[in-house]
Amino acid sequence: MVSVRIIPCLDVKDGQVVKGIHFENLVRAGDPVEQAAFYSKEKADELVFLDISATIEGRRTMLDVVRKVAEVVFIPLTVGGGITSIDDIEKLLKAGADKISINTAAVRNPSLIEEGAKRFGSQCIVVAIDGKKVSPSGWEVHVESGKTPTGLDVVEWARKVEDLGAGELLLTSIDMDGTQKGYDIEMTRRVSENVSIPVIASGGAGSLEHLYRVISDGKASAILIASLLHFRKYTVEEIKLYLKQKGIGVRL
Amino acid sequence: MTGIVNYGAGNIYSVLTAVRKCGEDAFIVEKAGDLSSADSIILPGVGAFGDGMNALSGSGLKEALVKSVSGGKPFLGICLGMQLLFSHSDEGDCDGFGIINGMVRRFSFQAALSIKVPHMGWNVVEAAGPGRELFAGIPSNSMFYFAHSFYATPDDPGSIAGRTVYGHPFASVVKIRNIAGVQFHPEKSGDWGLLFIKNFLEGKWLASE
């Protein structure tokens, strides 16, 4: 069977990694190519680059970053952040990205999912959903980096984007993100059980047990990890060995 | 020189970079006439079967490809590029090249099994039958990267060169004469993927039955 994917997430601003590996003796600070190569060598299964540039010039630089990374790293590369049009998607794919992730633009303009999937294939359209708990078993979709509530129910929105042609969901818990107290298992499970496409869980990882639980109980197909890896609390290999010992299939 | 066929869809640049990384010169085939300068051909592919067929037929690339392949040029189809070689696909109920007899089917599992479609991620490919040289130097049980909802079912089991299990076993590698096809993405499968491409380019698999 297919193995569970461990996906490091690197935040990039104006061409520089601003949230990535923190130890300069491992890689040059800020260098996206070195950081990507480092994680690829560690057997990360995919990489996500999140462009947090606020300017048009910064976004243009992202294309160069993708081009350079794609020349040295031969694992799937997802790029998210600020993508609003088919033209944006095409430019990133041509630069060497394999998938793109859309969040706010998907809510504002759901036809972008449909057109993107039709044109480039579902496998390269990842829809990112930021969910916040609003009732004992209800979660609301938020956009604009989690700041703006949309009134959309997370599970219903997940089903809708699957129908529109999304190939994968990147599901982040706004409540748990940054807490290191564990994933929102319940939200992840509810979404995963209601769609047939894979769900990548994100937000809240603080321990190996958390990672295991979101896979076994949350039914996640993949996990997106940032701080836990960047601060070298664990290496990709340590995470995989732990999961394997727990009976989860991984690529070693 | 390896020609990588551009038909509008697909991650052709990843494939181009990977082939160059293997030390081989490569160029993008944009039209039928470009194929004559290619010593070997790679047909990449992500996206929908019908769109792929339409794009290749409309540009005359389909006929040129069939001619080159029949003429004996080493050929590698990747993902959709492999599926297009088959007789017919359930995706859009559409005919393919018909170079390999068989159908392309959609993964379909009982809800209770909770097996996700698309099959996305790293999975084991077990080499089988012809074309073992494509896996030269690659340890058995190595994993490759998949991203697909449809899979090929060759009529002739003798053409299956590799199998993968997703809910059930399916043909993840096929090999007939000078034609190889892979359902996974060697260009995105790390070191073993690059070695697979290198083995394809070296061509020792061509003579293997």
Descriptive terms for the model:
heterodimer; A: 252 residues; 10 helices; 11 strands; 25% strand; globular; B: 209 residues; alpha/beta; Rossmann fold; four-stranded mixed sheet; 5 helices; 14 strands; 22% helix
Could you give a short description of this structure?
Chain A has 252 residues and is an alpha/beta fold. Chain A is 38% helix and 25% strand. With 209 residues, chain B is an alpha/beta fold.
Question: How would you explain this protein's 3D organization?
Answer:
The complex is a heterodimer of chains A (252) and B (209). Chain A has 252 residues and is an alpha/beta fold. Chain A has a single domain, classed as TIM Barrel. Chain A has ten helices and eleven strands. Chain A has an eight-stranded parallel barrel with strand order 1-3-4-5-6-9-10-11, surrounded by eight helices. In chain A, strand 7 and strand 8 form a beta hairpin. In chain A, helix 6 (154-164) runs parallel beside helix 7 (185-194). Chain A starts with a strand and ends in a 7-residue tail after the last helix. The model of chain A has no long low-confidence stretch (mean pLDDT 94). Chain B has a single domain (2-207), classed as Class I glutamine amidotransferase (GATase) domain (Rossmann fold). By secondary structure, chain B is α/β, with parallel strands linked by helices. Chain B has an eight-stranded mixed beta sheet. In chain B, strands 6-5-7-11 form a four-stranded mixed beta sheet, covered by helices on one side. In chain B, strands 8-10 form a two-stranded antiparallel ribbon. Chain B is globular and about 50 Å long. The A-B interface holds A 1-5, 40, 43, 45, 70-71, 74-76, 93-96, 98, 118-124, 167-168, 193, 196-198, 219, 221-222, 251 and B 9, 11, 13-14, 17-18, 21, 46-48, 51, 80, 114, 116-123, 143, 145-149, 165-166, 185, 187-191, 193-194.
